[in-house]
Amino acid sequence: KSKIWKLTEVGEPSQCRSLRLPENMRVTKISRLIFTNSGNAILALASNAIHLLWKWQRNDRNVTGKATASLPPQQWQPASGILMTNDAAENNPEEAVPCFALSKNDSYVMSASGGKISLFNMMTFKTMATF
């Protein structure tokens, strides 16, 4: 079943809010950025082939736990410290076109950064398959 989205036209700059995403890693450039389907996290793919995930916590200031510019999300990583890292382009990384796609339930991400395609588990960050 597909959702019908009601679009809102933004006509005034005052209707927009920005937010800097905190990050603990040295990332020079974000190549791709997407909201999760559940609306409570942002997934980014950096130019160095590493994925970054930020989640909004459910608390008394954000009872839904959904994305909001009123509160910054927290960068999230599993306790194992593992990173979701793509196989990078061997010859010229500047020519690579990084891309990724999330599963409907946000459990998996399929991703590439110019090399092999990887399938990652979003809860554990483990590589499920590479082809």
**So how many helices?**
0
Q: What is the residue-averaged pLDDT?
A: 89
Number of strands: 8
Rg over C-alpha atoms, rounded to the nearest angstrom = 16 Å
Describe the biggest sheet? 4 strands, antiparallel
Secondary-structure content class: mainly beta
**Strands ordered across the widest β-sheet:** 1-2-3-4
Shape: globular
Total number of domains: 1
Structure commentary:
The chain is mostly beta strands and 131 residues long. It has one domain. The chain is built from no helices and eight strands. The chain has strands at 30-35, 41-46, 51-55, 74-76, 99-102, 108-112, 118-121, 127-130. The strands form two sheets. The chain has a four-stranded antiparallel sheet with strand order 1-2-3-4, with no helix packed on it. Strands 5-6-7-8 form a four-stranded antiparallel sheet, with no helix packed on it. A hairpin with a 5-residue loop joins β7 (118-121) and β8 (127-130). The model has no long low-confidence stretch (mean pLDDT 89).
Concise summary:
The chain is built from no helices and 8 strands. The chain has 131 residues and is an all-beta fold.
